[in-house]
Specification:
CATH architecture of the largest domain: 2-Layer Sandwich
Structural class: alpha/beta
CATH class of the largest domain: Alpha Beta
Number of helices: 7
Helix content: 25-40%
CATH topology of the largest domain: Methyltransferase, Cobalt-precorrin-4 Transmethylase, Domain 2
Radius of gyration: 19 Å
Number of strands: 12
Strand order of the largest sheet: 6-7-10-8-9
Strand content: 15-25%
Amino acid sequence: MVGIGPGNRLDRTRRAEQAIADSQVVAGYDLYLAHIADLTAGKELIASGMMQETERCRAALQRAAQGAVVALVSSGDPGVYGMAGLALEMTAAEGFEVPIEIVPGISAANSAAARLGAPLMLDYACISLSDLLVPWDAIRSRLTALAEADLVVALYNPRSKKRIMQLEEAVEIMQFHRSDATPVGIVTAIGEANERIEITTLGQLLKTDVGMRSTVIIGNSTSLQLGGWMITPRGYRL
């Protein structure tokens, strides 16, 4: 499993590039394969669309079981909402006897934070608002706990054309525990030519353009905007 970061060449690690170079087969979501097309010339590709993770993972493991060196790629880090967990579970459940290496990558929360400033300088949590695999009741309970704990929160999969309510309810939960003036950072299409960066507030978040390719970072009670940056102070004395 190989993490390719947010999608651009500069944010890929050397270890990830070397793992792909050493592979004979590269498997991944077709958009992610497009991001690494400069590394895959002459290699066998296993490409599939969104919502086909299980089939893609099984195909990659089958090729590995046949003796091929396979790179199963994920955006960001394979262990953060990526393919690592599924591959390990499937290996055990279906009896694949293949050696596995997990190559980390820069996750969306970290790359978004770097664009915004330093919003993750103190304790924070990541949570996906997608309820395709996790019941919304569980996600809502976790959001409530994070809001009560005053943690900075990085939201993955915040909103899609079909999933509107989830972000609205997440904002409502946060507003119950935090000021409307709480800084919020939004980075969309991280690292790509059409990347968009915006710093707004919790009270204005639902008026901004947020989609599936956005990562949203909601500050805590100490977070602030300073010089065009979003910062969560760690408490250093100046």
